[in-house]
UniProtKB/TrEMBL annotation:
It comes from the Bacteria. The chain crosses the membrane at residues 37-60, 423-443. SUPFAM superfamilies: DPP6 N-terminal domain-like (SSF82171). It comes from Asanoa ferruginea. Keywords: Membrane, Transmembrane, Transmembrane helix. This is WD40 repeat protein. InterPro entries: 6-blade_b-propeller_TolB-like.
């Protein structure tokens, strides 16, 4: 072998190609940078994954109420990323409403919007009962709901500050229509009746129509959970509490019965034909008038027809707001307020807050002077094509304001919607899968490059 190598020509080692050393060093540095970048990317993905998963278990802290309650000048559009009251309690709310569309698929949300910041939450307790009609407490801290699918043996009280729920037993299962919440927050008037079919009715609300025909008034003491039945008032149609919460006006047929909390009748007031007492908030703050609106459907049951309230439909039909005096002292009633879909509450005895719908279906919350008719728009709803996966316009229904907050209400510039932090479980799972998949692909790519470099 030595002899063989000795026969080889004694020539110097060929020189390296020009720039070879600089190129090798640059490639080495680039490989190090890529490895470092890959390690950093993997660490960042791990942090994002942990943060995504942590938001579903870390309790959400509610903010302390602001001194002055407020309403955003624009209410945010539909979003599937909106969290729930149970996962992220919002604190006191200024509004409760149903939102969505069912043109192609049933995609509806029952929402509360914050009275102190731009928080939006789905009331998951309502979704679990297929979005029944509900009431918002006058101070905006609670929601009370029944069940529109069939007879229920309890009402459910949801605390918006903690997300906790309290069951209020009703005794035997009955169909329920919630009518009004007293200004002091202590009492709720509702109508109840046994149902001929006590089974589930699916997503169709037949409870309201049935109870509107046969329901008997009950007055619930929210603190104790006890209800007082007033069997003489049947069928109870709509109701509104007096400003001092000691009396309630209940419409039966075309007459409003003014009763105390024990059910004793104090007086009666005739409601003009074709009209009904404005639901929940029809008694003026000065105690002088009852506010009335046109029937939405057939009107009160008269033994032959009627009983279809129309209260469960979308907000769509403009009417007017007319006033009936409670005393015979000669005080003339105010002029009717035109272009009103729903009376939502009162700021003062002369200033009402109403819902309106324009010619193209855009909804708004408007402040109207009862005597002069002067108007100011407080807030507008986003009714654009953001519902049903951005294929349909959004519809509004079952709208309520926190009536006890209205006298001090301010209007704030709408900020970015705060939908609750924690993502829905499905979206969290999808995000986790996407992050893990990206991390795996980066790991494979880095490992492949390392293998090529070793060769």
């Amino acid at each position: 072998m030595r002899e063989l190598f000795a026969t080889l020509p004694d020539e110097p080692t060929p020189p390296l190609p020009p720039g070879y050393l600089e190129t090798a060093l640059a490639r080495g540095r680039r490989s190090v940078r890529r490895r470092r970048l890959g390690t950093t990317a993997l660490a960042a993905l791990a942090v994002l994954l942990l943060a995504s998963l942590a938001t579903s278990v870390v309790p959400f802290q509610t903010a302390a109420p602001a001194t002055t309650p407020s309403l955003p000048d624009t209410l945010a559009g539909y979003s599937t990323l909106t969290s729930t009251v149970a996962k992220a309690p919002p604190g006191r709310a200024i509004a409760l409403y149903g939102y969505g569309n069912g043109e192609l698929f049933n995609m509806f949300q029952s929402l509360v919007v914050g009275a102190d910041r731009d928080t939006y939450r789905r009331v998951d307790a309502m979704e679990e009962r297929d979005r029944p009609s509900a009431l918002l407490a006058p101070d905006g801290t609670k929601v009370l709901l029944g069940d529109d699918r069939g007879a229920t043996d309890d009402l459910l009280l949801v605390d918006l500050g903690t997300g906790e729920r309290r069951s209020i037993p009703l005794g035997a299962p009955v169909g329920v229509r919630l009518l009004a919440w007293s200004p002091d927050g202590r009492y709720v008037a509702y109508s109840a009746a046994p149902l001929r079919n006590t089974g589930e009715f699916g997503t169709v609300n037949v409870v309201e129509a049935e109870v509107a025909r046969t329901g008997t008034l009950r007055i619930l003491d929210v603190e104790t959970g006890r209800s007082t039945e007033v069997p003489t008032l049947q069928p109870a149609w709509t109701a509104a509490f007096a400003p001092d919460s000691r009396s309630v006006a209940v419409q039966v047929g075309q007459r409003a019965h003014l009763i105390d909390l024990s059910g004793a009748e104090q007086a009666t007031v005739d409601i003009p034909a074709g009209r009904e007492l404005a639901a929940e908030v029809g008694w003026s703050p000065d105690g002088q008038f009852l506010a009335t609106v046109p029937w939405l459907a057939e009107g009160p049951f008269n033994g032959r027809s009627g009983g279809d309230t129309g209260h469960g439909t979308f907000l769509w039909k403009n009417g007017d707001l007319a006033f009936v005096p409670l005393t015979a002292d000669g005080t003339p009633p105010p002029t009717a307020v035109k272009d009103v879909v729903q009376l939502l509450g009162w700021r003062t005895p002369q200033m009402v807050i109403v819902a309106t719908i324009d010619a193209v279906g855009h909804a708004a919350i408007v402040e109207v002077h009862r005597d002069t008719g002067a108007r100011r728009t407080l807030s507008r709803f986003d009714t654009g094509h953001s519902c049903e996966l951005h294929t349909q316009t959004c519809q509004l229904f079952d709208l309520h304001l926190a009536t006890g907050l209205l006298p001090d209400l301010a209007v704030r510039d709408a900020g970015r919607p705060q939908r609750g932090g924690p993502w829905p479980t499905l979206l969290t799972a999808l995000a986790a899968i996407a992050l893990l998949g990206t991390a795996w692909l980066l790991w494979r790519r880095i490992g492949h490059r390392r293998g090529r470099a070793a060769l």
